[in-house]
Amino acid sequence: MSVSRHQPVRPSWRCLACGDDWPCRRRRTELTLECGRDKVRLALYMAGFFSDALDDSPQASPQDLYRRFLGWFCPGPR
After folding, report:
1. pLDDT, tens digit, for every residue of 50-61?
2. Are 21 and 15 a contacting pair, CB within 8 Å?
3. Which of 1, 8, 35, 49 sees the fewest Cβ atoms within 10 Å?
């Protein structure tokens, strides 16, 4: 993945560049463009961040973190 100004600040998981929850809208766009149709690559990359966020935020809802880190490009069953 490319280097972006829109990186997470741990343990808050806020974006360094814009201050929004990470991955912010800009970083999501960048990642989508970088990965193209390779959703598996993107899923594996984001799963690492999801795991780290779970460790950093034990009080957070795992479902909310899943939606934040993976659900934006990989929706679950309807």
Report:
1. 999 999 999 999
2. yes
3. 1
